[in-house]
């Protein structure tokens, strides 16, 4: 039997040398060391041997089994090393090759406009305040001197969620909420950027969702001249020092008196052209002195405090500054359009 064991060892080592991968190694292990393998059969037949032969055959069987197992482990380690070397060779990086181009994003033009306007007003002493886009009827209308059934509500076709909740039609509710938090003590000097929603047909100049920035300054002895000075400083900083503004009487329920603010046309300089419809002026925003009722409903004494408010459409300011002819470009995610804004 010892000769048989030595022959099995030679056969196992020969097959192991020819093994090409770990699967072949596992086949050799099962074939020679498995429960049904020839070495196990030798051990099972030891009962037929004499007492003198058993220890010799048993020792020889253990030696053969141990040597086969050792060679199996060595072969597996060798195959693993080869596999790792192949993997490393395949993953070698040629540092002389040019790198992959990383596409650089950019700010959306509306974001850039909002940030620019914010920076200007921060420089004028205003702080930036935000509020919820889903508003109550009270803050969106009533606190702004628009009681229920007021005809001016028809100017702002609204998306109502319930009888009392709606998507805000303006950012003015932020002003009312902020004044309430001050509990009748000034000053309040804020701008409120954000999205607003109105039921409107989308076209080149209208959208059911757009962005507004509204401003509010409430303190003692605030006058219309303060409003004009702030807006003129803003327009010159945003459009250019050569631009001027004019105020035209208008009506808004939450301001009294109210004005429309025009800026001289950037194309013709005020002489009249197609862009400004030969008037020399382009309307840019609405403004006015805060209505005493609005002050009172927000906790301020209108006999002691006064203030002004203004509101502008971000898209309109972007259209005017960059000569864009269609508001829908801002929302259609056309990369040909967006790629033009990487420098702003």
From TrEMBL:
Keyword flag Coiled coil: yes
Limits of the Aminoacyl-transfer RNA synthetases class-II family profile domain:
111-320
InterPro entries per record = aa-tRNA-synth_II, aa-tRNA-synth_II/BPL/LPL, Phe-tRNA-synth_IIc_asu, Phe-tRNA_ligase_II_N, Phe_tRNA_ligase_alpha1_bac, Phenylalanyl-tRNA_Synthase, tRNA-bd_arm
Binding of Mg(2+): at which residues?
256
The alphabetized list of GO BP terms reads: phenylalanyl-tRNA aminoacylation
The cofactor required is: Mg(2+)
> What protein name does the entry list?
Phenylalanine--tRNA ligase alpha subunit
Q: Which organism is it from?
A: Sinobaca qinghaiensis
């Amino acid at each position: 039997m010892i000769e048989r064991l030595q022959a099995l060892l030679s056969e196992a080592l020969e097959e192991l040398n020819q093994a090409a991968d770990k699967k072949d190694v596992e086949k050799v292990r099962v074939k020679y060391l498995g429960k049904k393998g020839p070495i196990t059969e030798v051990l099972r037949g030891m009962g037929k041997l004499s007492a003198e032969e058993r220890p010799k055959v048993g020792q020889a069987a253990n030696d053969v089994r141990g040597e086969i197992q050792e060679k199996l482990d060595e072969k597996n380690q060798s195959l693993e090393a080869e596999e790792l070397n192949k993997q490393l060779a395949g993953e070698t990086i040629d540092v002389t090759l040019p790198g992959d181009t990383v596409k650089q994003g950019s700010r959306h033009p509306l974001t850039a406009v909002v940030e620019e306007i914010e920076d200007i007003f921060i420089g004028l002493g205003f702080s930036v305040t935000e509020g919820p886009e889903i508003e109550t009827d009270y803050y969106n209308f009533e606190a702004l001197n628009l009681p229920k059934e007021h005809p001016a509500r028809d100017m702002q076709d609204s998306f109502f969620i319930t009888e009392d909740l709606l998507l805000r039609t303006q950012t003015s509710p932020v002003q009312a909420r902020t004044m309430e938090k001050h509990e009748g003590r000034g000053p309040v000097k804020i701008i409120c950027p954000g999205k607003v929603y109105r039921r409107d047909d989308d076209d080149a100049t209208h959208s059911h969702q757009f962005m507004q920035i509204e401003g509010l300054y409430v303190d003692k002895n605030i006058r219309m001249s303060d409003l004009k000075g702030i807006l003129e400083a803003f327009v010159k900083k945003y459009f250019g020092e050569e631009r001027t503004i004019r105020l035209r009487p208008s009506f808004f329920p939450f301001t009294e008196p109210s004005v429309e603010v025009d800026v001289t046309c950037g194309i013709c300089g005020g002489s009249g052209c197609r862009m400004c419809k030969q008037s020399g002026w382009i309307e840019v925003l609405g403004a006015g002195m805060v209505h005493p009722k609005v002050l009172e409903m927000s906790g301020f004494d209108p006999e002691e405090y006064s203030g002004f408010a203004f509101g502008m459409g971000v898209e309109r300011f972007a259209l005017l500054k960059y000569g864009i002819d269609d508001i829908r470009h801002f929302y259609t995610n056309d990369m040909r359009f967006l790629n033009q804004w990487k420098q702003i």
